[in-house]
Design brief:
- With 377 residues, the protein is mainly beta.
- The chain has 2 domains: 6-328, Methylamine Dehydrogenase, Chain H (7 Propeller); 332-376.
- The chain contains 2 helices and 28 strands.
- It has helices at 331-366, 370-376, and strands at 6-12, 21-23, 34-37, 43-49, 52-58, 67-71, 80-85, 88-92, 98-103, 112-116, 119-123, 127-132, 135-141, 146-151, 163-167, 171-176, 179-185, 190-195, 208-213, 218-223, 228-234, 243-249, 258-263, 267-273, 279-286, 291-297, 306-311, 315-320.
- The chain has a 4-stranded antiparallel sheet with strand order 1-28-27-26, with no helix packed on it.
- The termini are far apart.
- Residues 330-357 form a coiled coil.
- Keywords: Coiled coil.
- This is Bardet-Biedl syndrome 7 protein.
Amino acid sequence: MELQFSPVFYIKVDSTSRGTLAVLPSAKRTSQKVVVGDQTGVLTCFGVKRGSASMVFKTLPGAKISCLKLSGSEGGLSDKIFVSSETEVKGFSKKGKQFLNFDTNLTEPISSMHVQGGHLLVCGPYVYNHYLDCKDVDYYLCSDKINDVLCLPPSSEPGPLSPILACQDCSLRLLKGSELQYEVEVAGPPLCMRLWGEGSGGGREGDEVLYGTQTGRVGLVQLTAEEPNYCWDMLNDRKYGGVSCLSTFDLSGDGVEEIVVGRDDGVVEVYSMDDSDQPRLKFTHVMGESVTGVGGGSVGSAHHEEVVVCTFSGRVIGLTREPLTQQTLSQEVKEKLESLRKEVESLEVKVGVAKEQYQETVAAAQVPSDTCLILLH
């Protein structure tokens, strides 16, 4: 079954970087909030009421926000917001109260980040650092550029974390603490990663990782402690752009999460898994500009799932499954529609008057004058 979505505009912020959009989880069956960070350093959180965006909080401008991640206490909701700017990491509650301002003192600006409980994983272009409760724990110098960082869920047995680095040399590097366990070769430089079924802890075994590449391919690999197992790899037959962001969410309500893919040429795709655990394309939408963030949730309505998309220029748009006839228009939108309707009616009257004047002019020009009649005789 094909999925149907309708685009709805929410807000416009300043230009955004890749991976700076998130949909906040909700414990109750209520509409969810969206948080987005922009290149002027402003963090904006909003919800949707009666069809229009309603601001929850908005921070003051500052250094460019390069990363945005959600986290929370173990077993609880991931409703705490973490953003990185230059070498600093700040933490905010879902209501906008700041509870963390940590300067990593790195020599490189933070380009990717992952937060897991009290663990903070940050990467510059070539250096990975791990902090526990803001204290330096592990360090790794990579031989090629790091595009993204992720971490496998912690095991029941005590031990170091298992971070994953997506590197420009077409490889995923699995670490154990500060030591390299092994490298996984993928078809193109991986730009972004996500745990498959992140809502359920990273797939059936908790170690399945989705990745998107600069060449436009999306793949799934299982990273066990001993060796990798390749699950599937999708070809980019349509020659779309590189994969700039990934998300997973149950959009169809069947208990299985769909894969949402955002690309740097503006294409947004939704894939669902078939009976043989292979991805099948269900929906495509073109935004017209590079996509920097995608997420899933119930934003415009608590009863309809949607894909939330952020573009490079800062447009935040919902691709909702709610029928357009059921969408509630805000008073502001209604006033604009009424104004446009009156303007169209006024233009129609002016066109009618101009048409009558033109017809009268043409008719007058076709009547011969007395002078012309005398000359003819």
